[in-house]
Amino acid sequence: MRHTHLDPRDLDFLLYEVMEAESLAERARFAGLGRETFDAIVVTARRIALDHFATHHRASDVHEPRLENGRVVIIPEVKAALRAMSEAGFLAATHDAAIGGMQLPHVVATAAIAWFESANVATASYALLTTGAANLIAKFGSPEQKAAFLPSMFEGRFFGTMALTEPDAGSSLADVRTAAEPIGDGRHHLTGTKIWISAGEHELSKNIVHLVLARVRGAPEGVRGISLFIVPRYHVGADGMIGAPNGVTLGGLIHKMGWRGTTSTILNFGEGERCVGWMVGEANRGLGYMFHMMNEARIAVGRAATAMGYAAYLYSLDYARTRRQGRLPGEKDPARPPVAIIEHPDVRRMLLSQKATVEGAMALILQCARLVDDAETAPDESERREAALLLEVLTPIAKAWPSEACQESISLAVQVLGGYGYAREYPVEQYYRDNRLNQIHEGTNGIQALDLLGRKVRQEGGAAFVALARRIAATAEEGRAAGGDVAPLAESLGAGLARLVAATEALAAAAERTEPARALANASVYLDMASRTVVAWLWVRQAIAAARLLASGTGDQRFLRGKLQAARFYVRWELPKTVAQGDLLRQLDATPYEMEDGWF
Amino acid sequence: MRHTHLDPRDLDFLLYEVMEAESLAERARFAGLGRETFDAIVVTARRIALDHFATHHRASDVHEPRLENGRVVIIPEVKAALRAMSEAGFLAATHDAAIGGMQLPHVVATAAIAWFESANVATASYALLTTGAANLIAKFGSPEQKAAFLPSMFEGRFFGTMALTEPDAGSSLADVRTAAEPIGDGRHHLTGTKIWISAGEHELSKNIVHLVLARVRGAPEGVRGISLFIVPRYHVGADGMIGAPNGVTLGGLIHKMGWRGTTSTILNFGEGERCVGWMVGEANRGLGYMFHMMNEARIAVGRAATAMGYAAYLYSLDYARTRRQGRLPGEKDPARPPVAIIEHPDVRRMLLSQKATVEGAMALILQCARLVDDAETAPDESERREAALLLEVLTPIAKAWPSEACQESISLAVQVLGGYGYAREYPVEQYYRDNRLNQIHEGTNGIQALDLLGRKVRQEGGAAFVALARRIAATAEEGRAAGGDVAPLAESLGAGLARLVAATEALAAAAERTEPARALANASVYLDMASRTVVAWLWVRQAIAAARLLASGTGDQRFLRGKLQAARFYVRWELPKTVAQGDLLRQLDATPYEMEDGWF
């Protein structure tokens, strides 16, 4: 069965009614663009995604990349799909037209990219890692580096990776041990081992551009001694021509539970052959550069989770409408035909919960993309600054919340299908396996929680958190003023915000008076609480827009009623979970913190 | 790495300090047994489980059963393990000594069986389905049927299945269409197709005994027209001798996300060759008989979930103690060695949460087993009756809660391992895939929710619920009297019980005044709320026992401190989630109920 992976009505609603994407066309960078172009881009992405990516979703899982005589063999559909995607220009969607990009707003590019991820996240990953690596070179690379790598990366002739993790340096990048020995001209010889490198080896492109964290001999210990290097699989001339192999060898493939179509590799640098890396920017500042890419990558994780959750939701919705089983309570006549299972209230609950999750997650991801646009192109300096602050505080939420909530949502899709949901003959179990990775990679969700509570909420005297709270309060106010069905939702949002503020203040006060580990011990609860509040905010904004359109009689009325119902579901079913979380946090509960190793 | 799958200290604590298993030896049925025998049985199960089952846990996943020239091929380790298990008598653990059983209390047998499931649930399933089918024949079969099948099933010469589901009759057994045509002597010719039949075809035993739901020609529509048949794969003489094939053919294998080692089959009855079934008991009463086995099977689902969650927990605990990564907040010197990750508060939270879940689940499962013992052998009639009532109301909880909570718990184990948790080179991802089935089979958790709220809570004027509430209140009272660390937990339990009672009464009142579907629409929330309250009850009982032992200075003091801390965690972190649930239920929230198909 071919099914729709995202709902175009929802993307339109979010892009134009909630994120006001059309207004971006007024900015100089996007001059000449407008809704027609934006729509054409998203439709193109959808077409390529459904025609070239969705078609081998299962095949790329069943026939995962394998080693054959030292070569990594991947089914041919992957290469074909990536060619279609790069030929349509999606590897440089947001880049300057001057260097071959489409110069699109991020918010539009995000909607487009989500189509690829909903159709086949494993295949899309090769492209998206390339985009991420290219963005980093575009931002911090020298003119020589840009000339050597960017055109080939944007064309899809070279693919990219990010090579951070080592066997003993995963969450703790301070312990990176890969060594770099200067050989002059900014070049270094690298030696060391990296692990979990996605897309680390394949023959899908002519070359692979690894962005590698390493430590120059004599550099300080810890994160202040880490530099960033461009390490191509094959040497590259200044003109982008490919030369001999560059001493990056495959130590092995790792076999994952899901997301199998993307190779996960152990890579050895400078083992046997010499391995030359080009230093990016200045020595010892590598982690800062990498975090530029990392923040983007973290939002991309949330986007991928959202896309998979969305695809699973729509599949289970379609199934629930066609599968007939059982009768409603109160129907005593067994000779009456069974009803479509969407008629069963518990199935409807599972579908509505999924809708509230995936559409809420999509709003979150598009909001982050819109903030990237605003941070870069808003006319007003203070607006740019505020957008950048909001983006800081929302990034850990955008990474972690969709990865968890969409996993629960996909689990509901499995449940709607029942036994079929658990069978590999149907697609939802694969989403369940694929998406589980999103809680782990690009910084585990525990790391995101520490980032939010330990850094983001406190940075610049709490400016980012204050900016977020102000936005949420404004939405609550607007919703109250809107009246009708929206007002009670806005009321609950206001109460939720007050709980979050109280918990935040209590934790800030605790951080002053107690040891840091104890104050941070419940960071994960805080992250979940803040996430629920933020998603409720985005739902109230959607409810306001839906009510406005309903009142004006424009748009698909049934779709808009559904938006209001999903908003109500989120605010009534999900937001109230922050009451108990707030209690725990305000009490600075220390139950896990005080648990001793010997007591387990 | 060979790891411990269950914690023997915990099994001892639960069996003897909480469930008071030793006192069972005073009953006539268990005369001659005692703690020494019980311990020997559990130790034997553990030895066989670790030596024969755990050893091919991964292999039975990677090399799942496959069709080869029409035969189902299974790796040889499976047969060898099952032989060891049946030779030790575990297929008839609780059966009368007179018919070859060990005549053990269920509470002890449950602890023993959990070892097999924690080591390799897929292999254990062949045995446990056999036990379930044998129990049913023992209870409802004719003397002739017992003689023909039971000895062979207890010996493991014949294995069993339960064949309920059809392509159009899954959750709705009223729609079973498999037909039975009488041929005299209680024998019938069966025709029809069953799906999702676990262990439906294999060559692990000499014969396979299917217990099949079918409809005798002319029987009433619906559940009142369903009969139960014994359908052997090969004909069986009255003496148990095996004859020719009996018209049960394999329609195909289904490929599952996990639990792969157990075949999942489509079976055709009477296609081509004639298929003879022996009717069990009376015509049209099949569903009632099957539910006897089903209730047992539902508790077994919870037990399997518990066992897998437990194994994942202990694996991640061991990993967290040995894996070194990162430094604690406040440690500024990057040259200091990394700490074991159990030192990180967020990792400790994930471990404590797992401990609270899996030990709470084990208490729940052993409690149910103890109630089976009491319902059968308590000296006092009123005690037997109360135990039977409690068992009714606890069965949907024992099926559903461990299947969900242990899935979250296994997900935390994956998270503790990080990338390694997601890699098939480590065992935890398999538990994650395997256990997901438990929310689906033997009645989806949505069905369990309807069973609890629509039937169990209301049956006999609410007698079962009242009995449960009385037990919980008594524990709260006992805990308050115990004082010290236990009193505040008991206080919270009392408040949780009051919330559950209020929600139950509100729902009962609503059922009277509104349409039944609306009253039942939030059954899943109710099931979760009731489950959390029950598990908190079991944790407070554990806390009372631990405090008593700590005060008397007996037992492993550190283990007992851990018990108190886990009880505190459950009561402070998990039980308060019922506050928001109670609000929703008392308001009879109708958000999902009122969602319309066209609004999605």
Key words describing this protein structure:
600 residues; globular; Butyryl-Coa Dehydrogenase, subunit A, domain 1; homodimer; alpha+beta; Butyryl-CoA Dehydrogenase, subunit A, domain 2; two-stranded antiparallel ribbon
Helix content of chain A: 55-70%
* Unreliable stretches of chain A: none
Largest interface: pair, residues per side: A-B, 103 and 105 residues
The main pleated sheet of chain A reads as: 5 strands, mixed, barrel
Task: Please report the total strand number of chain A as a whole number.
Answer: 12
Structural class of chain A: alpha+beta
Mean pLDDT of chain A: 96
Number of domains of chain A: 3
Oligomer: homodimer
Q: How much beta of chain A, percentage-wise?
A: 5-15%
Give, in spatial order, the strands making up the sheet with the most strands of chain A: 4-5-12-7-6
